[in-house]
Specification:
single chain; five-stranded mixed β-sheet
Length: about 130
């Protein structure tokens, strides 16, 4: 049974949820527990941050719950994402990101230019 873990700061959209089931064939979705989600979503801005140490508990969570060939949706802080994509590849997991179509509209309201953006999920792409 294929599984997917979410290293992701947002909630899945219905389209993403459906795509996980149909395109990826994943039957089990692992959200990070709250304490790990906080680690992922609030990466410190410390200049000397060592990702290997900082992300250790998240790596343990993946190792405890996934098997080789399972998926990991990895989106977030660039440095943390880079580190975890490499970790996934080294451990046989398939790191993915969501490809979205961006629809941007600009309009003027009360003399102020405002910008509105929508993001529509298209598919999941593997990091290569």
């Amino acid at each position: 049974m294929k599984k997917i873990a979410l290293l992701f700061s947002h909630k899945l959209t219905p389209a993403q949820n459906e795509d996980i089931k149909t395109s990826l064939g994943a039957k089990k979705i692992y959200n990070l527990p709250l304490e790990l989600q906080s680690i992922w979503s609030q990466v410190p801005t410390d200049k000397d941050l060592i990702f290997n140490d900082y992300l250790e508990d998240i790596k343990k969570f993946l190792m405890d719950n996934l098997n080789s060939g399972d998926f990991v949706l990895v989106q977030g802080d660039f440095g943390a994402t880079y580190h975890m994509v490499n970790f996934c590849k080294l451990n046989g997991f398939i790191p993915l990101y969501s490809v979205n179509k961006r629809i941007a509209k600009e309009f003027i309201e009360n003399g102020i230019v405002k910008k509105y953006s929508e993001f529509k999920h298209e598919f999941f792409r593997e990091y290569h």
